TrEMBL record:
Location of this chain's protein in the cell: Secreted
Span of the signal peptide: 1-22
Transmembrane segments: none
Domain named NodB homology: residues: 94-353
Pfam families associated with the record: Polysacc_deac_1
Taxonomic source organism: Iodidimonas nitroreducens
Name the record gives this protein: Chitooligosaccharide deacetylase
Family membership noted in the UniProt record: Belongs to the polysaccharide deacetylase family.
Main location: secreted
Lineage: superkingdom: Bacteria
Biological processes annotated in GO: carbohydrate metabolic process
Keywords assigned by UniProt, alphabetized: Signal
Amino acid sequence: MRCRTILCALWLAAIFGHSALAASEKPRDLAAADQLDAVIMIYHRFGEDGIPLTNIRTDQFKFQLDELVAGGYSVLPLSEIFSAFQSGRALPQKTVAITIDDAYQSFATTGWPMLKDRGFPATLFVATDPVDQGLPGYLTWDALRALAADGVAIGHHGAAHMHMVDEGVEAARADILRASDRFREELGAVPELFAWPYGEYGPDLESMLREMGFKGAMAQYSGVAAAWDSQFSLPRFPFNENYATEERFRLIAPARALPISDVVPRGPILQPDSPAPAYGFSLMMDIPGLSALACYPSHSQQARIENLGNRRIEVRIDEPFPPGRSRINCTLPGPEGRWFWLGKFFYVPGSPD
């Protein structure tokens, strides 16, 4: 494997545990560096009026797809992005992937025709129980076979769409194995890529997926995915009616991953009623304009940022995280008008949806 840029060298160093660059490896301008990151988008329903939390209107989706065409984006299969991350191969500038969760019928009737018309690939993550149960609004196995034959990549989303952190590793393993049996029976193969139901995961669950032979897994919090991230909890930007403005899309689509290492805490799981954790990370290289970095917890006001020197950043949050899913989004203006966007997911177990 060739390593042609400083970002590739940094990624390899992170993999093999080397934290410092050689003196001769002076970081070059990020705008000229090979891209080892990608914006991965997640959708659920298409054109299903009256369900704004999981639906995107067809006019909104059309604008986004047209923007990707006009803006010269490289819309790649998700599997190709994973392969690039795991080999250290550079991706094209402005790389994007499109994913869909839950296998609603509106993907086949509305979303996929719009994607196919523009030649864009997509990955559909399927939870098998709703399909087996014939629930209203979900695709059938015949429809899924037709989509797969038409070029849609099928991903694994478990069987019951369960809260896997709350249910525990063994229950999650049983759920995944049950779904794998159904994929094998109906589609002839088990998907290699997984999407965490509700975006909820933890270190033990990630280890379980590795042991089961999956290639990688997707989470569901905003952030740019990168080669130096865990390949079993990569972030995705969610879009629905309420979060699909033209301004937001134009900010997200060209975004870059902030090159970081030594993240604490490593896992997302917090104990109920515990204080907010000390969140911190180290920058892999000097980033111009770092004073403009801003971090926003989903449950509180803008966080305080402490620059400790030697590229170490600490994010201070006063309020404990509430039960359920939470996140921190950190943004920073970057080269060529492309913002850095760093996401961090947190989860306090034992809460309702």
